[in-house]
Specification:
With 474 residues, this protein is mostly helical. It has helices spanning 21-27, 78-95, 98-109, 132-135, 143-156, 162-176, 211-222, 226-233, 278-285, 295-302, 304-315, 317-333, 393-398, 429-441, 454-473; strands at 32-33, 44-45, 55-57, 67-73, 240-241, 266-267, 355-361.
């Protein structure tokens, strides 16, 4: 976990204060946790590593107006998260572990209690599931296999937190299985010790005495509502239940006996690696004894409030995808402590940077320019706001003026063969080359118009008159 740093405005010659010994000793406390990577034996150790940050001074020379840019390290590095996402996609292609990765992310965040304000006592997406006390909870049976699969990716990218990695794997699994794009954000901070794990009993049970009431008790505690409960239940369209782990389901069915992946278990749907709304359709019809229906699944069509949404999702997959994506993103953020506090996205240009850059204007007085030197052209200081959105290249070319060329005359329009085609359809590259070659063969070029050949024009005129004379004579 990286530390968020703050930098104060100081004169250019003032040295930065060193961190206090007590702060270093407090940060150096170590905590052991089990490694899920088979290649490692014994516990891993979290060691203190000084936080890194960079400063860029915009002022030049002593006493110059200083614009200091302070780069603060986020909990996770965005570039490493993007690379880890690609590795996770490759992992899915060979292991078909989409369902258990969804479960891993859910069970890390699903311990959240909205009635507890303190972090990490409130639970939630904080990476605590990697520790033995929480991993040994009954509801987490079998998740050690997910940790074994994902630990090599964590070892490869040490600049990301477990909390972010678990949620990244969960959201990527949904998307790679054909589900909706999840509007995720990252920057979750990890807990550092097993003592910070939440107590057992916060996750849902598959066969409670009153299934509908139990679902509400668990998910209302997280701050979720009926619509979100039903939408999230639709993720059972992926995966299987194994009796040796959950106590539910058959050892194998005609849909699971041959895999893919490890054979066995009982699935909720026929295509249990495809994310769609078939879960709601199959639960509603109950025509196939080889498909699993848990008491909490059946409650979605038995409880009047749940049934409204379950019926809707069985008929409208688009509505299900929309509501599911929102509910999944909300679940993945529960209880999380973000650094930076607002988090960041991997899919936005503004949020993909691994760290925040804060511009601070110093209160120093700039030196006056020398008398013999002409004053530089004045320009207003940029406000510390977000950078302007860049226009697409085509739009920028279309709106370019003489100022874009530093005052020079507008440049000639480049040759574009597609302008001479019909129906405004783009030509192939080979056809463009042929047209260009023919155009240049007659003496033309992209930068000047084709010159007239007067001799050729006279010959064409004589040939035309000869042809008309022959028609008249005949």
């Amino acid at each position: 976990m990286a530390e968020r740093l703050a930098a104060s405005l100081l004169p250019a010659a003032s040295p930065s204060p060193a961190p206090s010994p007590s702060a270093c000793r407090a940060a150096a406390n170590t905590a052991s946790f089990p490694s899920s990577c088979p290649a490692r034996a014994g516990p891993l150790r979290l060691r203190y590593r000084p936080a890194r940050f960079s400063q860029k001074a915009a002022g030049r020379g002593r006493g110059g107006g200083a614009l200091r840019v302070v780069r603060c390290m986020a909990a996770s590095d965005a570039a490493q998260l993007k690379s880890a996402r690609e590795d996770i996609k490759e992992l899915f292609k060979t292991t078909y572990c989409h369902p258990i990765m969804v479960r891993l992310g859910w069970h890390d965040s699903g311990t959240y209690d909205k009635n507890i304000e303190e972090w990490p006592q409130r639970g939630g997406a904080d990476g605590s599931l990697r520790f033995d006390p929480e991993l040994s909870h009954g509801a987490n049976a079998g998740l050690i296999n997910a940790l074994k699969l994902i630990q090599p990716i964590k070892d490869k990218y040490p600049g990301i937190t477990y909390a972010d990695l678990f949620q990244l794997a969960s959201a990527t699994a949904i998307e790679e299985a054909g589900g909706p794009k999840i509007p995720m954000k990252y920057g979750r901070v990890d807990v550092t010790a097993p003592e910070q794990c939440p107590p057992e009993g916060r996750l849902p049970d598959a066969g409670p005495r009153d299934p509908a009431e139990h679902l509400r008790e668990v998910f209302y505690r997280m701050g979720l509502d009926d619509k979100e409960i039903v939408a999230l239940s639709g993720a059972h369209t992926l995966g299987r239940s194994r009796p040796d782990r959950s106590g539910w389901g058959k050892p194998e069915t005609k849909y699971t006996k041959d895999g893919p992946g490890e054979p066995g278990g009982q699935s909720w749907t026929v295509e249990w690696l495809k994310f769609d709304n078939s879960y709601f359709k199959d639960i509603k019809e109950r025509r196939d004894q080889d498909l699993l229906v848990l008491p909490t699944d059946a409650a979605l069509f038995e409880d009047p409030a749940f049934k409204v949404y379950a019926e809707k999702y069985a008929e409208d997959q688009e509505a299900f995808f929309k509501d599911y994506a929102e509910a999944h993103a909300k679940l993945s953020n529960l209880g999380a402590k973000f650094d930076p506090p607002e988090g960041f996205s991997l899919d936005d240009d503004t949020g993909a940077a691994p760290a925040d850059e804060k511009k601070e204007e110093a209160a120093a007085t700039p030196e006056p320019p020398a008398a013999a030197a002409p004053p530089p052209p004045s320009s207003p200081d940029p406000a510390p706001a977000a950078e302007p959105t860049l226009e697409p290249v085509a739009a920028a070319v279309a709106t370019a003026t003489a100022d874009d060329n530093n005052g020079a005359a507008p440049q000639p329009e480049p040759f574009v063969a597609a302008k001479y085609s019909y129906g405004k359809r783009e030509l192939s590259d080979s056809m463009k080359q042929k047209i260009r070659a023919e155009y240049e063969g007659f003496g033309g070029s992209p930068n000047k118009p084709l010159q007239s050949n007067y001799f050729l024009n006279i010959m064409i005129l004589i040939a035309g008159l000869a042809f008309l004379t022959s028609l008249v004579m005949n």
